[in-house]
Amino acid sequence: MANYILFETASGYALFERVQSEEIGAKLEQVQSTVTDLAKFGKMVKLKSFAPFKSAADALENANDVSEGIVNPSLKAFLEMNLPKAGKKNKIQLGVSERNLAGAIKGEIGVECTTDELVQELIRGIRLWSEKLLSQLKEGDLGKAQLGLGHSYSRAKVKFNVNRSDNMIIQAIALLDQLDKDVNTFAMRVKEWYSWHFPELVKIVTDNYKYAKLAKAIKNKSELGEEQLETLAEILDGDESTAQQILDAARASMGTDISPVDMINVMNFADRVISLAEYRKRLHEYLISKMSHVAPNLAALIGEVVGARLISHAGSLTNLSKYPASTLQILGAEKALFRALKTKGNTPKYGLIYNSSFIGRAGAKNKGRISRYLANKCTIASRIDCFTDAPTDKFGQALKAQVEERLAFYDSGATPEKNIDVMKKVIDSLDDEETEEVSVETTKAGVKRKADEEPEVENADKKAKADKKEKKEKKEKKEKKEKKEKKEKKEKKKDKKNKD
């Protein structure tokens, strides 16, 4: 039976002593109704002690510890100070709302804890009348404190984690796919618009980005001359033959003339296409850098874009790591799967991972087998990325080598290496690297310590020499003094004899 009740508030910890309460008839309606009556409930429990939090940060730290079932040092000190020592006659039992916290308190300070129905009823009453019961403490507005702590606690629980910023990858890949569609649509519009003036350019240059840049550089084809040949070659990455071909086509073009106003509009739109294409390139670089931080192994195995699409489709890296290999294999082909299940046809062999180069290189008979094997390796890579503390792409490179070996096995029958051996090699290599880093740091520290110690050694030598010199001088002075005293004694004796 609980003698004391621990109650956590937004302002601090409160310890209530259970004075009197019905335990046998606790479930009776008449007994439970006493909780809603402050006069009756005030006789059941009495506030023994209250420990306010030092600051809002301290309150948040204690709230997080309570939710995770950890005994905070301040809570431990509070209970040790205010709970009486248990004896044979005086048995102490503490009532706690959280079961995990009850076990932690018992392990830390050895006090018996309970979370039974009676305790829950008492805590319900304390929570109901907390402002009245704690009013004499004058610890500020409890409602405001609860609101502030609630906001802080929620922010802490959903805080942005820079090491697992998979949401940035999801947004980046969605924008990248949208930009691909938009750039293609707008480039097609530029080609149609500018082709009225220079239709031959479409057949010579097929790349959308280069076409828009060339249209911007050429403008009116009748003004194109030999002096612009170098500019055209620069846009075409130094391809002078294609630049000459464009120049020849412009001279014999069948396109219509275009007014300066229309040309200005075409060029403005070409500028937009160029800027979109350049932004798409920068966004792709950003995606690569993000994948190298968040999911380096998945990126090394299957590529940054395909890996990002898998994370986006799953919703997060954590969700992807929870999927079995069979689910990851057909991720992105759900419609085909359900259609096949409905019509009792063949289920799809691959989904988003079809965009990987491995499946394209495999033979027609082996596409299903290599997709299953690749999905298995992707699952391993995503789990390593999600749950590892030190991100590294060594595992992804090893898994990629395994897929390459499997492709060679399908073609030539060469026996691939076992997965357990490959993983062991990678772990050993990582351990060796850590050992080397530690040894380098130790060597640097040793050199530094030696450098620091050298002046001390020099100082010690100088001090020893000075002491030796000082002792020698003292000894010489003492000897001179003794000789002088002896000489004086002899002279005194001599004078005495002469007098006699």
Automatic annotation (TrEMBL):
Transmembrane segments: none annotated. One of its GO terms (molecular function) is snoRNA binding. Residues 459-470 have a biased composition (Basic and acidic residues). Residues 294-412 form the Nop domain. Residues 433-500 are annotated as: Disordered. InterPro entries: Nop56/Nop58, NOP58/56_N, Nop_C, Nop_dom, Nop_dom_sf, NOSIC. It is found in: Nucleus, Nucleolus. The keyword Transmembrane does not apply. Pfam families: Nop (PF01798), NOP5NT (PF08156). Gene3D superfamilies: 1.10.287.4070, Nop domain. Keywords: Nucleus, Ribosome biogenesis. GO terms for biological process: ribosome biogenesis. PROSITE patterns: NOP. GO terms for cellular component: box C/D methylation guide snoRNP complex; small-subunit processome. Residues 471-500 have a biased composition (Basic residues). Required for 60S ribosomal subunit synthesis. Belongs to the NOP5/NOP56 family. This is Nucleolar protein 56.
